[in-house]
User: Fold this.
Amino acid sequence: MICYLFPEPLYFFLSPDVPAILYYAHIPATIISLLISLYAFWSDRKSLLNRLLLTISVLFSLWTISTLIGWTNIHSNLMIFVWSFSGIILSSIAISCIYFIYVFLEKKDIPTWLKITFIILIIPVFVLTPTLLNLSGFDITNCDAFSFENLSFKLYYTSLGVVSMLGILFLLVRRYHTAVSSFRKQIILMGIGIESFLFSFFGLEFVASYLTRIGVLPDSGLELYGLFGMVIFMIYISILMVRFNAFNVKLIATQALVWGLVMLIGSQFFFIDTTTNFILNSVTFIGTIVLGRYLIKSVKLEIEQREKLEALTTELSAANEKLKSLDKLKSEFVSLASHQLRSPLTAIKGYTSMLIEGDYGEIDPKAKEIVERIMDSSNNLTLVVEDLLNVTKIEQGGMKYDMSKIDFAELINETAKDLSITCEKKGLKLICNIPTDQKYFINGDKEKLRQVLINLIDNAIKYTKEGQIEVNLQINNDKIVLFVKDTGAGISEAVKGVLFQKFSRGDGAKLNSDGSGLGLYLVKEIVEAHKGHVWVESEGLGKGSTFFVEIEREK
Amino acid sequence: MKKNLFNRIIPYFFAISIIIVSIISYNRFIINNDYFVGYEGVCDPNIEKCFIGCEDDECTEEYYYSQIVKYAPDLYSECGEDITDCKEANVCLPSDRNCSITYCDIETDGDSCSTYIEKSNVETEDQLNIVE
Assistant:
């Protein structure tokens, strides 16, 4: 039977006798919800949350399709058939929403007992849908079935919507208390979105149909406004996607903005009457899509580059941390090893000294020469061990300086005197003519500075084959400048830059294969700890070199 | 294991349920037209208490009707798809199953009922008085 007072619709959905708001409420809301939920589903198909969001959107779409048929069609059998599914669709939406919120909040599937509860609640709706207890007839004058709906059945499935609203509110509040601050913001946004949707959708649907049934309203047009609740819900879902990467979707604000604009312009087509407006709107629509795509691409590229940079920075930071810990480990190992070497070395030096001094009787001159060599090697090894230990102390921040006012000139003279024997043995001349008309007081640690002098002079001796080594002091404004000049192997420009680094050897390393490469590093560290400065000058290989140490003068 | 099996069964359970419900509903409403049809039937306010309806929103023109409910297959066999100009639609025939015609009841429907019968009765009484 047809509704004899209403015209036949065109193309199944288009009817001149319905309010324009019908299409504006149904179609954009359906398209927006499907697009967003499909986008989320496509980004992560395995996610239960994304599947539930899609389920809600699909159910909502089925609802809008069925109500569109209800509003525009005139065939009673088709309309009553579609109308009969209202209960199933509404109750499924209610259950899906509460399921969705639980998974969103708890990040896991609902427990089995809850699933069974939902099934028990929804089974009566399924069972009674095709029966007289749902719909008994259809009014072909008003073209609706309100007067033939079983109010108890309608109340039952509508109450599932109320239960869903209350249940969701309970879950949101419960989870809010235990959530971290960033998730709390998400909870608030999701709560506002979904409750707005449920309240407007179920509330207005029930109120409109009930008031129409009792004759207060001429038709149920009021329920159309309830569909905008879905748009609000989707806006909040989009905000969650953009700001919090919810649903495991990498959606950027630009994309959401552009698509929102496209849909807004597209929805204008429902209101256009004239051809001119249609053409203008079409041009705007196409232009927005094209420019929007270009904009999205550019912004996406920028974001990708920034993310790559951030990833590289993170990797670099991690590598740096690893290097630091390895360095620390190495320092600890070196320190441990050096300490372990000290004791045996002390024993060797002690016994060789006793042998040289004849504590165990006179020894053969040739044997004495060999024992003296053993003594020299032990002394060298002791220096290397001391250097290693000092380096470890410096790296671990454990080097302590006993600062006091010292006569630098006196210290230099003492050290030069100690090393003059070594110098003479090698056939080199050590010149130390510090002017006595000036006072060369500095604030420093005497023993550490002695170490510096030993390292510099000893280096000069090691790297000079023939000629002389000159040690002197100068006063330059408020600073004292020590220089150690030799006629040795010289230093190339390339090596100058790395000479004061750990384990760095000069170009004349062939002359001194015993060196540890730590002497100059220690010199630099100790001088800098005294707020001083050390550098080297050389005209090149074979032209000797001069090491300078500049320290603040103490008056 | 049992939990996984249960989780896997649920979607199929719902899908099958929807299919079954759809088939039963389709069979009932589309194939068998197993439902009642309500409509406004013709009503003579001189004889019956009729509902008053408005032709337009401003109610500049009224009409009178009764509420008729007939079983869809019966109505279809009597009047076809469109019941306009179908006299059988306005009466309950002996062959009709569960046909009912509801007239307006002043006690329950109040102002929606026509008062034409009272007026016409009053006029008749007045006329009688004059004659007497």
In short: Chain B has two domains: 1-32, 35-120.
